[in-house]
Specification:
single chain; 344 residues; mainly beta; Jelly Rolls; 3 domains; 12-stranded mixed sheet; 5-stranded antiparallel sheet; 27 strands; rod-shaped
Length: 344
Amino acid sequence: MSEITANLALPYILPSQAQKHVTHNEALQLIDAVIQLTITSEASTPPEAPEEGTCYLIAAGTEGIWAGKQGRLAFRQDGAWLYIAPREGWRAYFAATGKFRILVDGTWSDIAPPPSSLPLLGLNATADLQNRLAISSPASLFNHEGHGHQVKVNKASAGDTASLLFQSNWSGRAEMGLAGNDEFSIKVSGDGAAWETALAIAAGGIVKTPARPVVRASLAAGTSAPANNARTGFNAMHAQQGGFALGAAVPSGTGNRLIIPASGLYLLILSVSTLTSSAYGARLEANGSTALATIAGVTTTAAARQTAFGLAQLTAGDWLSIVHTGTAQYEFGAGKTEISAILL
């Protein structure tokens, strides 16, 4: 059996050994010197008044009591120097330079600090070149340090994208941010492929809702005197967004049904322009039966224009038309006899 340990060369207490406490204390001195190793500085001569517990790395060109001990550690203990030969891989804090170093191939080299920039980082997830930061977690917390906190998403130019994408089973369903321009927008998708812009805000604060159902519809420009209880539909849409479409021909009348594209509460506007009338009525109806807005005109030989408003809960697939009563010569077309429908 060896008399010292393999790594730190601590002396063993041997059987039948006298003065066992001396051997034990020597081992404690070595442990005290090398555990949590701090080297005061590298020096070629010992300081004049060394403090207890200080440790020096003996440099080249030593003289006096350190002569011939280059590369060793000189540890001040009980008023004397304890000389220790460091081993490969030892790490120490060099107090004079404020650096951690490691002994490799007989040379103390600086230990590189943690990098300030990581190419990839995965937290409970695998990062890749596209998703260089990947986090798999029930929640993520970004807290303030001070009084506030900003999350910044930057892009190189107006044509690029800076956005937040919300997915369902890895397929996009909603996106908000600057997508392809500098308008803040919210987009939605039902399949991850076809996208609709629900809201867009320009730099001046102008809010646009390009997918909101809005329509102005009429018959083509012209004049006509529909019979009593006749029905007119529409064959021209002068403003349209959000999926409005013309359906089948209206029953017992002229024109086509205007089909409601989405369920919701609608503001409805019925405008009527007449050239002459012998007391007439015009009624905007849903599905050929439910009155939504009504106008009543008096007998006159002068041109007249009247407008009525309605508010109704409509269902996708409902259809609109106008029912005429009495007798009047109507002007049809944009800005004449027409209806407007706006989803609120």
